[in-house]
């Protein structure tokens, strides 16, 4: 193995380990801010959208394409009336949380 190959392997494994993990990095954000209205409880579910399963979220997420995902459009909306979670819920996402969800979608939006 030459020096260049070693560097390619190191870079590849760093990129791999930097991938977001659904249970560690994504689910806590959704659970805290979204599942209350878009979760398994069908009585409290808003807009008929559930985000706790990949099948439910398919309507709002195009894996690999945040720009084509209504989930990303809604968490990054400039207009307060469009933004999720709703202002009235007294919940909000930090810029880091919005960035993490964007990256998760870019990486394929895998559920675990
Ligand atoms: C307090 C309840 C509440 C919470 C919390 C909430 N939402 Fe919503 N959500 C709604 C309601 C009500 C609608 C329908 C009205 C609208 O589109 O604004 C909606 C609509 C949406 C839609 C559009 C659905 C469609 O296909 O038409 C998306 C996407 C969405 N929410 C994502 C999220 C995400 C992501 C979170 C968490 C970051 C979240 N919501 C948190 C109440 C909530």
Secondary structure elements and their pairing?
Layout (H helix, E strand, L loop, with lengths): L2 H15 L4 H12 L1 H4 L15 H4 L12 H6 L19 H12 L6
The protein binds heme C.
Backbone shape: elongated
The ligands bound in this entry are: heme C
**Biggest pleated sheet:** none
What is the number of helices? 6
Residues in β-strands, percent: under 5%
Count of all domains: 1
Given the helix and strand composition, which structural class is it?
Answer: mainly alpha
Cα-atom Rg, whole angstroms?
A: 17 Å
What average pLDDT do the residues reach?
92
The separation of the N and C termini measures 35 Å
Q: Quick one: how many beta strands? A: 0
What would you note in describing this structure?
By secondary structure, this protein is mainly alpha-helical. It has one domain. Helices cover 47% and strands 0% of the residues. The chain is built from 6 helices and no strands. The chain has helices at residues 3-17, 22-33, 35-38, 54-57, 70-75, 95-106. Helix 2 packs across helix 6 (95-106). The longest helix has 15 residues, at 3-17. The chain is elongated. The N and C termini lie far apart (35 Å). The relative contact order is 0.16. The mean pLDDT is 92. The structure holds heme C.
Question: Any key phrases for this structure?
Answer:
binds heme C; mainly alpha; single chain; about 110 residues; about 45% helix; 6 helices
Compact overview of the structure:
By secondary structure, the protein is mostly helical. Helix content is 47%, strand content 0%.
